[in-house]
Design goal:
By secondary structure, the protein is mostly beta strands. It has one helix at residues 2-23, and strands spanning 73-76, 84-85, 97-99, 102-104, 112-118, 121-128, 143-147, 151-155, 190-197, 200-202, 205-208, 211-216, 219-226, 245-249, 257-265. β12 and β13 form a beta hairpin. Bound molecules: magnesium ion. The site of magnesium ion (MG) has 8 residues, from β7 and β8.
Length: 271
């Protein structure tokens, strides 16, 4: 009898072990995940490893810096960080490296945030990933354009660097891969031109979601995409009411450089 019990228990353990082995998530998530939730209505899981990765398009790299139009506000000109603070340092001055016409993320020093708040904007950003390649997937040249501090247009070295599709350069992180991959080589200057329509709330109610359009090195990679909520790692983001908020640049512990940022506050057409 006892032998039988042991046999059944052993058999049960064996089945359990086999089932566990079959469903156990892979620890290597460089190409994504298979155990994450989906946004309602989406056929893809967040950071879905099976989501197709967009093909490369050769674009304008190392282009000259784009002059800010007269109605733009220059947020960073390569040397002056007075428009920015460091939340991790009690909103004190920027602690990133500033030299030779750029500011560079210093790992561990936190992100930077504009002193001013913004709503609907056109934003121009010039950035470069490290010329010396270290790491891969999300650990290679990762930063981010954090619109309103919570809606991320991904900054990543996506040159010959496979990662999950909704996490590569100009992805709306965790929601939409870019249409194509218009990335430049490591160390080359790249440009983002972003049109951001901020979400609108009436009290606690969302009355209009955010929308994002992106041009990457002159190539359209996001076309008026409806943002599904704050962009999060492995989680469904849920809108919470807010008014205008500052712009942030993410510190993902890789030394990404920024040399130019300017913004235009979008007004309606004259009627
Ligand atoms: Mg990022």
């Amino acid at each position: 009898m006892r032998t039988t019990v042991l046999t059944v228990a052993t058999l049960a353990l064996g089945i359990s072990g086999a089932a566990q082995q079959a469903t156990q998530p892979n620890d290597d998530h460089r190409l994504g995940y298979d155990d994450t939730p989906s946004y309602p209505g989406s056929k893809w899981k967040i950071h879905d490893s099976k989501r197709p990765r967009p093909s490369m398009v050769s674009a304008a790299c190392n282009a000259p810096t784009v002059k800010a139009p007269s109605d733009a506000e220059v947020l960073f000109n390569g040397s002056d960080t007075s428009k920015w603070t460091t939340p991790q340092n009690n909103n004190g001055p920027v602690t990133w490296k500033v030299e030779n016409g750029y500011m560079e993320v210093i790992p561990g020093k936190g992100g930077v945030r504009t002193k001013q708040s913004f709503g609907d904007i056109q934003l121009h950003v010039e950035w470069a990933s490290p010329s010396v390649v270290q790491g891969d997937s999300q650990n290679r040249g990762n930063s981010g354009i954090m619109l309103m501090g919570q809606y991320e247009v991904q900054v990543l070295d996506s040159w010959d660097n496979p990662t999950y599709a909704d996490g590569q350069a100009t992805a709306i992180y965790g929601q939409y891969p870019p249409y194509v991959n218009a990335s430049c080589k490591p160390g080359e200057w790249q440009a983002y031109d972003i049109i951001f329509e901020s979400p609108k709330f009436d009290g606690d109610k969302l009355v209009k979601p955010a929308f994002i359009t992106v041009f990457h090195n002159g190539v359209m990679t996001q076309n008026h995409e409806q943002v599904l909520g704050p962009t999060l790692h492995r989680q469904v983001g849920v809108y919470k009411p807010h008014s205008d908020l500052p712009l942030e640049l993410q510190n993902h512990n890789t030394p990404v450089r920024y040399r130019s940022l300017w913004v235009r506050r979008l007004q309606g057409r004259l009627e």
